[in-house]
TrEMBL record:
It comes from Actinidia rufa. InterPro entries: NAD(P)-bd_dom_sf, TIC32. This is NAD(P)-binding Rossmann-fold superfamily protein. Gene3D superfamilies: NAD(P)-binding Rossmann-like Domain.
């Protein structure tokens, strides 16, 4: 998480050359998803648009996501079958947020297990969300200029 914060503050991709850790990168990507959804929700509201943006944590699902992470894959395969969700259970919160009438009009929320949940303090950091948005926009603009 600190690497993401540092990345945004420096507005550079040079840190990608640092030592790579797949679990850390996965966690950073999930934080970025929540930050982006929160900033999108804020911007939509500020522009008076009746469009919602929320974040969903589906839970730990029995997929092959960690198949290349040796020890973690073994632990999930041996012990995880009792505590992880199947694909249908994992999709339940996403379907709930997209379709349930109780969620209509809610925006900028974080959901887990079909309920509003509390995200991490970093995920609720509005300044960090704005920095990520601006950083992402800069990358998109750079790509657009080189195409």
């Amino acid at each position: 998480m600190l690497q993401l914060t540092k990345l945004i503050e420096q507005q550079t991709v040079e840190c990608f050359h640092a030592r790579y850790n797949s679990l850390s990168a996965y966690g950073q990507s999930k934080l970025a998803n929540v930050l982006h959804a929160n900033e999108l929700a804020r911007r939509l509201k500020d522009n008076g648009l009746d469009i919602t943006a929320n974040s969903v944590h589906p839970g730990v699902i029995a997929t092959n996501l960690f198949r290349h992470n040796g020890i973690f894959s073994v632990i999930v395969n041996v012990f995880g079958r009792c505590v992880v969700k199947n694909v249908q259970q994992g999709a339940a919160t996403t379907c709930y947020v997209a379709l349930h009438p109780q969620v209509k009009g809610m925006s900028g929320k974080y959901f887990a297990d079909c309920n509003i949940a509390e995200a991490s303090s970093q995920a609720d950091d509005t300044e960090l969300a704005k920095k990520l948005w601006d950083f992402s926009l800069g990358l998109v603009n750079q790509c657009a200029q080189t195409s």
